[in-house]
Every structure is written in structure tokens, then in C-alpha cells.
UniProtKB/TrEMBL annotation:
Domain of life: Eukaryota
Record protein name field: DNA polymerase
Cofactor(s) required for function per UniProt: Mn(2+)
Region (Disordered) location: 1-30, 146-176
Species per Swiss-Prot/TrEMBL record: Suillus subaureus
Family, per entry: Belongs to the DNA polymerase type-X family.
Keywords for the protein's UniProt record, in alphabetical order: DNA damage, DNA repair, DNA replication, DNA synthesis, DNA-directed DNA polymerase, Lyase, Nucleotidyltransferase, Nucleus, Transferase
Length: 570
């Protein structure tokens, strides 16, 4: 069910223009119609929330408040604008947090006449808002479907440039952006945090044991850079299990943790150490290790994986400056002839292309290491789709990757595109990826192409799904504008035939562990093969063509999991 997702954030410009109209006393700290400096009053409805979760939610707000007050006393310049207060008086509340998704159930506790004047959201909204330090729009967190309209209306609609409530240009355009589903609380309840596959568990962006997860992730990263794949996957599994565990782990409930899958003795003793000391010795030892430091730094460069990082280290290289000299790259300058990829035919999987890619990554590393806020991700998608509409009308896109899982900052932009015509779309998107990249280059938006691949030729043995995806890994930049310096961004474009659009979206939404388990689940439990380019049945190669994202889950025999609950990695 589609929903309206109001613009998530506000710039200082927005609030300034609001104040000039309304006077300082009514300055809006949108997207909510709440005055700046006034606390947002949160009422948490106890019904259907586990008592422990209830106290965790309350603590979340209280701890956040204390931290915020401390920061402001210390004169910190990073005091967050988010100002939350718990209230037990629902009439005074701005927001109702509830695990209930039925209006009738809510009405047992709160008069609908009152409830419908509030934003009614899931507990995840509270967790994510606190995590990101700002009032998130409640669009994807709407708890009670009946209240969807009211909840949207209770947010600021004055900005008018909300991505999901199309501005004039979008309405008139011949392209559209697919809207995400709501979280269905009843559906989430069908999932189990004890399940063996992460595609059966709800995994929030930030979990109650996030600092533990981060510590274990250091060890996982250590295994990754050393090429110890099996061990790395074990740590990834352990992390994904903890990500889905809904309570804070303490010395009192550690026995419960022992019952979770994939937590062996070694990990359990690390967890115990963490509970006692707040640290894991092995992780701290790794952080202090110069080899770990060099290799970790090397793999931050696009194009350098663990294998190449170890090879470079073996040559005696230790720092990025040394890599620059080795690759003869000047920071900020990259006139590699990567655009030649546009003329070359297909898979540039050659060593020269790989080296080219590293050179670009190195030269632009200062920009590419900066994260991208959601608003800019949306702007980039909008711009790309506008350019695409000049080449082919009727296309649509979904922004996948971490953005779709709810991250407030992304390291790159992953956009999956298809055509809205189910029958002819496949023909219409063929070759479009290359044409679009060419146009974006001519318009000054795309400066580099690291990789460009076309549809696969018909694969007789059907060892992989064929004839379905085109992919371009690019560097995107806003064209020159006198006032601002251009920041280079990594943008991945994936073109899918309509039949495999939703499998591509699921495949590119991640997270990595979620994807790994989707493939494993399909193979081990369903005798099927799943990847971004399609779903097929193993014994007869029958192909499935899901028409929605829900269909993808249905075909795989899975309960639908909302993208924001697919954060099975650290
Ligand atoms: P971030 O970009 O903010 O760091 O977070 P992210 O969006 O989760 O990471 P990402 O590295 O951009 O990857 C997004 C998802 O796309 C991942 O979950 C991964 O499974 C998938 N993905 C790639 N590369 C490829 C690829 O070459 N083919 C396919 N099918 N999927 C890929 O990252
Ligand atoms: Mn991404």
C-alpha cells in the first residue's frame, strides 16, 4: 500500500523563511508543525509492547534528554535539534508510539477523536529519530493504517517539495518513483528473532545492543581484510543474530542469549567480556595493529578489495599517500579516460579497467568518503530520472541500498530502474543504461564510469539468470555552480526488465547478510535460486516474475519484511 512520505528534513533556510513569515515565536522546526525549542511530547501506548521494551523505549528518551542537556551545558556546538519529552497525558502528546496496527485496538485505549489529531507511529520511529538526532518524518513509520491520512497531515506539508508528494514537475513528468510500503506491525509479530535465517528475523537499523555489535564488527572486519572468509561469515552471522535481538543484553539475561542460533562459545565469551568491561580485547588489539590500520584504510578506496589491499601492503605500501605515489595519482584530479568505457563493448573486467577504477577512487577519495544525506540521494535520483525521461518515457525507479533501509547517510546511491509497461518494458529498457550514462556525461552529471555491463546473452545452460540486468557504476557530480564546490558521489545505476525489477530491488536493498540468507533460504529450503537478476526453480529452471516486492517474498515462501527491518549487518 503506497504512502506519502513527506520531506524528511529541513534546512536552516527553511526555518528562516518560516520565521520571516510567521515571526520568531512561530518558527517551525519542520517537518512537524512543532515550534522550535518546544519539546515534542511523546506518549507511548503500553498495550502490546513488552514491558522490557517499554522501559527501553522510555530509557531511550530519558538518556537522550540527559545527553542533550549535558552537551548544551558544555556549550557543545552539536546539540541536536531533536527535543523529546515523555508524557503520560495523551491529550497533550504530539506523537503516539504504539505497537498496535489496528484502529479498533488503539481505540480500546485512546479516544479516536484525540488520537487522530496526533502522529501515530511505531516504536521504530522513536528509535530511529533518537539515533539520527532529528525528528524523522513518520511516513514509513505510520502505525495504524486507518490513521495514515491524519498522520501525514500532522506533519508539515508546507514545504511542498516532498519527494513523495510530487511537486508540479514530477506530476507532469513521465517517470515516477515507487513508494515504499508501510510497516505492518501484525506482520512483524509473525517474525522471530530466534530464526536461523536473517530473512526471517526483523533487524532494525539500530538495535538495543548496538555498541556490542560495533565491537564484534571490528573483528569481522579483521577477518575480512585477511581473506578469512569462513571466519568472517561466522562473525557476520553472530552480528546479524544480535541485531535482531530485541532486548538489551545484560549479565542477568545472558542465559537467553545462549539459546540464540550461531553464537558459539568464543563469541559468548566475547559478549561476557564486553558486558564486564565495555570492550573486547581481540577487537582492541586489532585496532592497534598497524597492518589492520593500513589494510582497513586501503579498502575504503573504491576498487580496492581485501586481496588487492594485501598485495599493496606486501609491496611495502602503508598509507594512502603512498598509494597515490604508487598509482601516480594527484588528489582531486582525475582525468582517466574512463568514458571510453561507453564506447567499448561490455564487460570491462580487465586488469586495466580495475586499475583505472582504483585511480579514480584514489583521486576522488576525499569527496567519495563523505556520506550523502537522504535529501541529496533523492535529488540525485530525481535528476537522473528527469534526464532519463528525455530518452525514454514511462520509466520508474526505486532508490535501493542503505537509503531504503532507512540510513540517514549513505556512502553511495543505488538506483534500480525499469519501465512501467509490463509487456513491452523489457524491450524499452534494453540498451537504456548506456544511453542514459552517455547523456548524463554530456550534461556534465557523470564524470567517470568505473564499470558498465549490458544484458547477458541468452545463457543456454541457465547457470545464471539471463537477459535481465544492465549496470553502470559511475561518479556523479552536480554541474558547476558559482557558489558551491562540486562534491563527487558514487552512483550505481541498475536497469532491470519489468519481470525482474522487484528481484533487483530486493537484491540491491541489502543488507549484505540479509541477501546472503535470502540466497541460502531459497536454495536450502525452497529448491530455488535467488539473485538480483531473477528467481528460478532449480529442478526445471522455471522463472518467476514477481509483480511487487511482496510477491518476491511470497514466491520465496517468506513473510514480507519491511526494508527498514533488513539491517542484518552492523
Ligand atoms: P551504503 O551504500 O550506505 O554503505 O550501504 P549499502 O547501500 O547497504 O551498501 P552498498 O555497498 O551500496 O550495497 C547495497 C546492496 O547492493 C548490498 O546489500 C549488496 O547486496 C548489493 N550489491 C552490491 N554490489 C552488487 C552487485 O554487484 N550485484 C548485486 N546483485 N548486488 C550488489 O553492493
Ligand atoms: Mn549503497
Amino acid at each position: 500500500m503506497p504512502f506519502k512520505r513527506p520531506l524528511s528534513s529541513h534546512t536552516s533556510d527553511d526555518s528562516e523563511s518560516a520565521s520571516s513569515h510567521d515571526g520568531p515565536s512561530k518558527r517551525l522546526s519542520s517537518p512537524w508543525n512543532i515550534e522550535r525549542d518546544k519539546a515534542v511530547l511523546v506518549y507511548i501506548l503500553r498495550a502490546k509492547i513488552h514491558p522490557e521494551t517499554m522501559s527501553e523505549l522510555a530509557m531511550l528518551v530519558e538518556n537522550y534528554k540527559i545527553e542533550r542537556v549535558n552537551k548544551s551545558h558544555q556549550g557543545s556546538s552539536v546539540v541536536s535539534e531533536l527535543n523529546l519529552e515523555l508524557t503520560t497525558d495523551v491529550e497533550k502528546a504530539d506523537v503516539i508510539v504504539t505497537a498496535t496496527n489496528m484502529r479498533q485496538r488503539l481505540e480500546r485505549h485512546i479516544n479516536w477523536r484525540i488520537a487522530k489529531t496526533k502522529a501515530i507511529v511505531t516504536p521504530l520511529w522513536l528509535q530511529d529519530s533518537v539515533k539520527s538526532g532529528r525528528l524523522l518524518p513518520c511516513g514509513s513509520y505510520v502505525a495504524v493504517r486507518d490513521s495514515e491520512d491524519e498522520t501525514s497531515r500532522n506533519q508539515d506539508t508546507s514545504s511542498g517539495n516532498s519527494f513523495y508528494s510530487p511537486s508540479g514537475a514530477e506530476k507532469e513528468g513521465s517517470w515516477q518513483t515507487e513508494q515504499d510500503e508501510l510497516i505492518d506491525a501484525a506482520e512483524v509479530e509473525l517474525l522471530s528473532h530466534n530464526a536461523k535465517y536473517s530473512c526471517l528475523r526483523p533487524s532494525p537499523l539500530v538495535c538495543p545492543n548496538q555498541s556490542l555489535v560495533k565491537e564484534i564488527d571490528i573483528i569481522r572486519r579483521g577477518r575480512n581484510i585477511e581473506g578469512e572468509e569462513r571466519s568472517m561469515v561466522s562473525y557476520s552471522r553472530a552480528i546479524s543474530v544480535i541485531k535482531a535481538y530485541p532486548r538489551v543484553i545484560t549479565e542477568h539475561n545472558i542465559q537467553d542469549i545462549r539459546k540464540l542460533p550461531f553464537l558459539g562459545e568464543k563469541i559468548l565469551s566475547m559478549i561476557e567480556e564486553f558486558l564486564k568491561t565495555g570492550r573486547i580485547t581481540e577487537a582492541q588489539t586489532m585496532l592497534a595493529d598497524p597492518r589492520f590500520q593500513s589494510l582497513s584504510t586501503f579498502i575504503t578506496i573504491h576498487g580496492i578489495g581485501p586481496y588487492t589491499a594485501r598485495r599493496l601492503y606486501g609491496l611495502g605500501l602503508r598509507t594512502l599517500e603512498e598509494l597515490e605515489r604508487y598509482y601516480e595519482v594527484k588528489p582531486g584530479v582525475s582525468d582517466e579516460e574512463t568514458m571510453s568505457l561507453l564506447d567499448a563493448d561490455a564487460s570491462a573486467n580487465t586488469e586495466a579497467a580495475a586499475e583505472q577504477s582504483i585511480k579514480i577512487g584514489l583521486a576522488l577519495r576525499h569527496d567519495l568518503s563523505q556520506t550523502i544525506p537522504r535529501e541529496e540521494v533523492e535529488d540525485i535520483n530525481r535528476t537522473i530520472m528527469r534526464e532519463l525521461s528525455h530518452i525514454q518515457k514511462g520509466c520508474k525507479s526505486v532508490i535501493a541500498g542503505g537509503y531504503r533501509r532507512g540510513k540517514s547517510q549513505s556512502s553511495d546511491v543505488d538506483i534500480v530502474v525499469t519501465h512501467t509497461d509490463w509487456n513491452l518494458g523489457s524491450q524499452k529498457v534494453k540498451g537504456l543504461c548506456r544511453k542514459l550514462v552517455q547523456r548524463l556525461h554530456e550534461q556534465g552529471f557523470v564524470t567517470h564510469v568505473m564499470h558498465l555491463s549490458g544484458f547477458h546473452e541468452h545463457n543456454v545452460l541457465r547457470t545464471h539468470h539471463w537477459d535481465s540486468l544492465e549496470k553502470a557504476l559511475t561518479v556523479f557530480v552536480w554541474p558547476h555552480n558559482s557558489s558551491q564546490r562540486r562534491v563527487y558521489r558514487r552512483v550505481d545505476l541498475i536497469f532491470a526488465a519489468p519481470e525482474v525489477f522487484w528481484t533487483a530491488v530486493v537484491g540491491w536493498t541489502g543488507s549484505t547478510m540479509f541477501e546472503r540468507d535470502l540466497r541460502l533460504w531459497a536454495k536450502q529450503q525452497k529448491g530455488m535460486k535467488f539473485d538480483s537478476s531473477g528467481i528460478s526453480r532449480r529442478h526445471d529452471s522455471k522463472l518467476y516474475h514477481p509483480r511487487t516486492e511482496r510477491d518476491v517474498f511470497k514466491v520465496l515462501g517468506l513473510i514480507y519484511i519491511h526494508p527498514t527491518l533488513r539491517n542484518a549487518d552492523a
